[in-house]
Amino acid sequence: MAAIVLTGLAKTFPNGHVAIRNVDLGIDDGEFLVLVGPSGCGKSTLLRLIAGLETPTAGRIVIGDVDVTAHSPQLRDLAMVFQSYALYPHMSVRDNLGYGLKVRRTDRAVAAKRIADVAAALDIQALLDRRPAQLSGGERQRVALGRAIVRQPKAFLLDEPLSNLDPALRAQARAELRRLHRTLGATVVYVTHDQEEAMTLAGRVAVMRNGAIEQMAPPLDVYAQPVNTFVAKFIGAPAMNLVPATLVGIGTPSGALAGIRPHDVVLGAHGQIRATVEVVEPRGHDSVLHLRLDPPGVEPFLAIIAGSAVPPAGAHVFLTLPVDRRHLFDGRTGARLE
Amino acid sequence: MSIRPVALVPAIAGVLLLAVLLFPICWMLAASLMPESRLFESRPFLPTAVTFEHYRALFDERNFLVPVRNSLLVSGLTTLVAVPIAALCAYALARLRMRGKGLVLACVLAISMFPQISIVPPLYLILRELRLLNTYPGLVLPYLTFSMPLGVWLLTGFFRQLPKDLEEAAMLDGATRMRALRDVVLPLAAPGIASTAILTFLYCWNEFLFALSFTLGPDRYTVPVAITLFRGRYQVPWGEVLAATVVATIPVALLVLACQRRIVAGLTVGATKG
What we know:
The structure holds two protein chains of two kinds. In chain A, 25% of the residues lie in helices and 30% in strands. By secondary structure, chain A is of the alpha+beta class. In chain A, helix 2 (93-103) crosses helix 3, helix 2 (93-103) packs parallel to helix 4 and helix 3 crosses helix 4 (137-150). Chain A is elongated. In chain B, 74% of the residues lie in helices and 0% in strands.
């Protein structure tokens, strides 16, 4: 296992598209780092740059203590799990697992032992003689993971590995990934567009936009202290409400935005903001209220209310935005104000 | 019940098509087994007497095994040379990032569009200077002028269809690009390569103009040239021509049948439940 350090990394495609802008990123040995962002933000390109499948236009990539910027993928000793799994369709599961070992001339007995161990760990022993086409989606995903693990690489690169699974399997696979990371102590770089996956899996999250990293911190820190309105809106579901700060009685600086997560909105008769309930979405243990604030020109505003005492649609309510739960952002740049 | 007649339409169409396609072949087969004297009767495709005289004459008097051997050698060698080189070329065009890929492909296509007759004179002069007239290389090299562009075009299409992820996975597994090509791309492109090989072989097998122009004597004639030259000054030995045509069809039919099974097998690899 090894640390990965990216310095001043940039990638512009031949067609002029700037995919990565000057990224500096240090991934510690054994860390689980999640790159998250909307589609087209450059997270997959960044992963492919680390893998060596793309060549950077500027910057350096160091894995362990070797500068691998100029190395082709096969010299970097990394393992990657693809969104499509990319299992070799003409090989059995056993040969899929063993291909990397065969190419690297691992001793046959050692290879067989490692394949057996990984198959046991992932519970795919029964599938070893099947072809990928004979496997279900979840089984393919486990084989793809197994192919990465069996190699014992310096680091794992995972590109949206769970996005082709149905929700129930995804939750299960997520738990398995966490367990695997704990037992292997491996360095993992994980790409996803799903903020929930990022929150639940990551040791640290790097939120990306337009080829740059907006914020990198442990998931709870990103949730509690988003550095700007983009991160505030992207992390956490439903997204944070943003309203002009003057609405909530904050005058300075002028043009500032106040943010509050739907969970943190308090309804009560002593609230200072009037609103009308437009839609109520009961979710069992709580309800999502879509509110229209009385001051005009404000976007839809969400509140999540626990329990069964929920005002009906059409009702007029008063809101309080607790001071300790409020976030303030610059109205022009979107940057967090303290 | 009203669906039935509609469902029969494709079947009837298929039978009709097959009849049209098979009719000349049946006639050829029947006529090759008929005595010369009966060939021009009013209903020539109903054999009333069977004789192997034409086949005997073909091999005993005309030494027809020589052109068959020549054709097999030339077509086989051309296929063996053209397909691997075309595969490498097509892979590069399908996958690698380089300037002028479109231009290269356009040129390849343009070259295969030249009327054959237009390149016969220059090729003749080149082959004469190289002392390759009336030799096997003297046919294989000209045949590459049409078989390579054909192969490059077909295989570029096949390689483009293969998912890129698989090669990238192989490279991360530690394989070089050439190793990934050998272990992952080629096995998956096998059906495409097999059909390209068949087409190349067929083109060479049927080729007439180059073979006529660049061979000088019966020891190097290919099958189409040999059959054409059966005709004498005053008569055409139709019985022998037809027998020769049957002999010329057999290797090709066998090859296509053999490869077809592989193609179908290739397409269904891993698709069946076990």
